[in-house]
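Aim 2 progress update. The chain analyzed this quarter is reproduced below.
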Amino acid sequence: MRCSLLLPDTRGLGIVNSGGAESRGSTETIGSITKKGMDMKQELQNVSRREFLKRSAVVGAGAVAAAGMLSACSTEQNEDVKVASTGSDINWDHEVDIVIVGYGGAGVTAAISAQQAGASFLVLEKDTEARGGNTGCTGGWTIGKDVESGFNYFKSLCRGVTPDEVLRAHVEAFHKFPDFARSIGIEPDYKKYNFVYPSVPGATEFGDGTKDSKASFRCAKPGENTNTTWQRFADAARDMGISVEDGNVLVATPATRLIQDPNTKEVIGVTAMTGVQFDIPSYTWSGGTEINIKANRAVILCCGGYENSPEIRDNFGAHPHGAYVTFYGTPFNQGDGIRMASDVGAKLWHMNKKEVHALANVPATQATGIGIVVDAYEAKGHDDAPATKSSFFINRFGKRFQNESFYHGHTDRTQAWDRFVHVHGKDDAGIEFADEVGPEFADYINLPFYWIFDQAMFDAGPLISDHEENYRFALQHGLFTAIDNQEWVDNGWVMKADTIEELAAQIVAKDYWGQTVGVDAQALAETLAKFNEYAAAGEDPEFGRPAETMQPLAGPFYAMELCECQTNTDGGPERNEFCQTMNHYGEPIPRLYNCGECGSIWGAMYNGGGNIPETYSTGIMAVEHAMTLEPLS
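Predicted C-alpha cells:
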C-alpha cells in the first residue's frame, strides 16, 4: 500500500506534501541506523529541467511573495494523497536522530559533530560521489583577529540585512572552529590576507594583514592547494566511521521534500530518491527509489544554494534578467533546500545577493554544464612565451565598453555588462547611448559580449584559468579536460580569422529575443585601430586602461563569447543564531536547521574567505542545538 500524506499548513503558508514510499518489507538494523533493502534501480532518462522541478518543486503556492514566486517553478501532487494527522502512518525506511541533507563543508562537520555527540545520523548527498560541493574546490577562512573585530567588520558588510545576534553567534563560531579542527587532527595554517573593502568601518581593526594577526587561515592538506580542504575533513570523518562505505552517507540521493507534523509543525523527516542517475550537461536526474527517513531530533539542510536552478536564479538572481550566467562550483546545487524549506513555511532572505569572481567561455560552459573560467583579464605567460596584453572586450556594436584590466576578485559591484539602456523617442534624443543605439532601444547594451585577442595572446599559454591548480569543479574532477587552445578552436569554442573583418562575420550576436544584432565589421575594425593606437601611445583616453596592460594586436585574430561566472549564491531560508530555520512570523520551524550557503548570513557585501568559515561552522552550530532537543518518541 502506498502511504502519502497531505499535511495542511494551518497558517496559510502553503501545502506541505509529504509522500510515503512503497512498503518493501521489514527493517533491519545496521549499526545505529535502521535500513530497508532498497531497489537501486538504474534508469537513465533524458528529462527536462522542468520535469525535474516537478519532482522537487515548492508545493506551497502560498501566501508570501517569495514563496509565491518559487511556486511558479511548478509542482505535481500525487493523485493518491491521503490526509493524516500524524506521521505515524508513514513507512520509514531509516530512523535516525539527525538527517543531514548535503555533504559539503557544513554536512561533513555536522556529521562529525553528531558522531562526537553520540547521535545516529544519515547524510543524503545529491552528487553521484562525495566531492564536497562548492567547498570541495575552495578553502580559505577570513574571520578577523578576534570576535569583536570580526563582528564589527562583517556588520559593516552586512549593511543591516543580518540581525546582530545572528551575526555575532556566527562570528563566535568562526573563532571556535580552529579548536574543532584540532580535535580531529587538523592544524590550521595561518596566512596573510587582503581586504576587499578596506574603507568600510571596522576594517582597520580586523587585522594587520599578516599571518601573525591570525585573522585568516587554511586547513588544506599540508603542501597542497586549498581545494584539498574538504577532502581533508572527509578523510578525518572516514577515520571516525563516516563515509559512503560505512553506509551513513548516501550518494545519488537527492532529498525531495520535508515531512512535517501538521499539528506541532515539527519537521519529523525527509523524503528522498536514492540511486538516481543524471543527464549531462543539464544535471537533471531520473530513476531511483523513493525512501522516507525519520529524524527523531532534527533535519539539517546543508545542500547549498540555487545557482544551477534557472527558474529560481532568473527570478531572484541579481544579474541582467534572462542573461546567461554560470558558476564554477558544483552543478548539483539546484535550490533543493530553498524549495523544501519554503514548502514548510520558511521565510527567505538574501536571495538577490550577487558575488562575481570570474568570466567564462560560453560555448565551452554550455557543453559542460559547469563554468569554464578563462583568464580574460590578462594572459599568463609560460616558459616558452611571454605574457601579452593584446586583447579587449566588445559588445554587440563591435565597440569596447570598459577598462578590461579591472579587479576580478570577490566583488559586489555592478558590472559594465549589467547596464540596461532604454532610449525612447525624441524626448531621449541626445542622452547617453542615443547616437549609438538609435531612437528606440530597450535592452542590456553590453550583452552579449566578446573577448577579442590575437596570435600572441593565443600562444602565451592556455586560455583556461587555473589549469595547473585545478581549483574549479570541472577541472578538479576531470569533467573538462580540454586544456590546449587549438582544441577550443576545433570545438568551435573560439573563433579564428586572418582579418578582423572576417572575424566579425563569424560573430553572430543575438539579443535576448533571439534577433541577430551584430557584430558590425566596420565598427570592429575601427575599434581595433583605436585600441592599437592607444596601446602604441601608452594612453587609453576612452576608459583609462593602464599602458602596461595594453599591447597592439596583429592578425590572425580570435574571438570568444564571454559570460559572467559567479562563485555561488547565498540566498535561502532565514536562520537564527542557532541556525534554526525561521518562518514568516519570526519563529523557528521546529527541528529544522539550515547551514552554509543554504540561507547564508551574507546578504549585501562579501569579503573573500567568508563563506568557508560560515559553511564549516554552521554544521557544528546546528548539531549542538539539535542535541538539546528531546527526541521524538
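The first helix runs from residue 49 to 56. The two ends are 24 Å apart (CA to CA). These observations will guide the mutagenesis experiments scheduled for the next reporting period.
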